[in-house]
Amino acid sequence: MNLLEIKNLTKTYTGYKALDNVSLSVEKGSIYGLLGPNGAGKTTLIRIINQISVPDSGVVFFENEPLNTNHIYQIGYLPEERGLYKKQSVWEQIIYFGQLKGLSTKEAKLRAAKWLKKLELADWRNKKTEDLSKGMQQKVQFIITVIHNPKLLILDEPFTGFDPINADIIKNEIRELNINGTTILYSTHRMESVEEICDNICLINKSKKILDGNVKEIKKLNSKNQFEVIFDGKTPEWINMISTEKTEENYTKLLFSVSEMNRAEIIRKIANEVDIWQLKEIVPSIHQIFIEKVKEVNNA
Amino acid sequence: MHKIWLISKREYLSRVKKKSFIIMTLLAPVLIGVFYAIIIGLAVNQKTGEKNKTIAVIDSSGIFENKLENQYRLQFVYFKNEDFNSEKINGWLIIPKDFTVDNPKQIIFKSKESATVDLKNKILNAINTSGKNIKLIEKGLSKEFLDSLKMNVTLHTLEIGDDGKFVDSQAEINLGLGAVFAFFIYLFIFLYGVQVMRGVMEEKTNRIVEIIISSVKPFQLMMGKILGIALVGLTQFFIWVILSLILMAVVSTSFASQFAEISQNIPQNNTGISSKLAPLIDMFFSASLVYFIMFFVFYFIFGYLLYSSMFAAIGSAVDSESDTQQFMLPVTLPLVISFASAFSILSTDPHGSMATFMSIFPFTSPIIMMVRIPFNPPIWQIAASMFSLIAAFIILTWLAGRIYRIGILMTGKKPTYKELLKWMLMK
Hints:
The structure holds two protein chains of two kinds. Helices cover about 35% and strands about 30% of the residues of chain A. Chain A has helices at about 40-50, 90-100, 105-120, 135-145, 165-180, 190-195, 215-220, 265-275, 285-300, and strands spanning about 1-15, 15-25, 30-35, 55-60, 65, 75-80, 150-155, 185-190, 200-205, 210-215, 225-230, 240-245, 250-255, 275-280. In chain A, helix 2 crosses helix 3 (about 105-120) and helix 2 (about 90-100) packs parallel to helix 4 (about 135-145). Chain A is globular, with a radius of gyration of 24 Å. The two termini of chain A are about 35 Å apart. By secondary structure, chain B is of the alpha/beta class. Chain B starts with a helix and ends with a helix. Chain B has two domains: about 10-45 and about 170-425, no CATH class; about 50-150, 3-Layer(aba) Sandwich (D-Maltodextrin-Binding Protein, domain 2). Chains A and B meet through helix 2 of A and helix 1 and helix 6 of B.
């Protein structure tokens, strides 16, 4: 079942198109990556889902209902540009945002206490936000985003400005939320970071969707069926060699291609003829796929 | 509405809890009280602190001997010879030999310090009075009868009210009060309007705004902020009124004995401060103040709402304080003009066509109508003024909201007026 269905969204700002007929669907419980360079239209799309902007045309369905104001309480949003009230205490701030997201004061207090304890901020609750370290402020920011236990968590470049330790803490919290059923929409221009996290992705460039789907399937679809093998012995003559070189240990390093139909057969055949030291498929990175797809679109 | 309430509450509490607010709120009435005490103290001192003066009368004609009546803090003694050495004598009044009541000659007054107008008047008053008395006694009137002529009169002024009844005239006090309240409105619109603008800019530059408007509508955020800050202003105003009343009462009672002394000593000169202060103090506890405060609260709230929605729009459109100047000028111009012209309207023609127009035109009415209220403008004008102010507030807030919702997410270049207009029309 899809938590989010986006159909034919178009949004024009004076002079330029920010989104051009973009459709995608986010499966419930998945981690969905929204990828594209800066200025591709990711933030515009996210703002439409958050009902900050209104699309010129197209519709968004949340749990099969057209998007309405009640859905605000089901969404947690960590924008790329984010901040806190510097002069307000951590505690008051978390309660306030919890209330804005529809929690009762009592419930907000309960959850704020729980989260502060979990992220080891309990001793800081009465401090002004500006007195906290950067890392602590980011934790507070994260608590504010998830305090109302949203069904959909939208993270726009969540790890920019995080130090590695805090980034890991937050990553673990995000994983835990996902395991407990929260769907995550993860927007970034750093494509290498999504491969390990996301189940599904959507690539956007210049306000248009380039491709979307399951990460593994996309990789498979864009596979060039090339393998790199390092072995000891004589190079089989029948192999469809692309390049070859000697390694430091005097092994042979060989790049070869196979056809989609008989790749398993060929690999078995090589294993019979030579002593394989290492064998791996040359899998294109999402980044490479993206660049190629953009080229294809531009050439077409 | 719940969201607006939550936002107002945060705006209100975060400001009221600030040290600067508490200090300002408590200190201002104390300063006013001190100022008030100094003014009264000076006035009282001028009267009571005046030294007793002794004037030596050298009357060669002999007609005024022991007849000049002592004035307030002025005593006459009689000498035969000119003795200018005495320390206790402040002046010498030399009456020529051939002076008669029917043929008065020039009298000479000599003193070490130059004689003040007040002193001259007192001396002339004494001479005139006893001259008159001498003539009246010559005509056969008794001294007892003349003494019985002295009256102690005060003037009580009344004014015909709208309902044909006579009411106490407090023209001067009302006028002053109207001006004070108009000044407060001017001050508060500026003070708190700028706070709205700063608050909006803070949220914009802090990048907190995007998080908030993913939970509430931009209009709710703007209104919540405006209303929260309005409550801060009202809180401050009422604390000021209450503290000022208490302080003024304290100051007035501590000077009460001096007032009593003054009014006993100078019954014939009863235009002094005591007669002006007594009704002023009375009226602070009377219905008249409540009447003014009702108007004040109306014009303060709606004048503030009108202007602060524009201030909010400005705050949303720019990135830094220095960029606000260009937009501030046209917005604040009507306010400044109305404040500048308020006092000429007060003193010249409070019912003229200019005054009438400005008291109905919504951008100037909060100040000009407040100034005109003491002169009892026609009911239809008050109604028109209030109605147009409310209407302008609704329209302006709506327009400001449209600029605001776009502006808060726009960073970078300062927008032009043309762009602001585009934002208003945007879907």
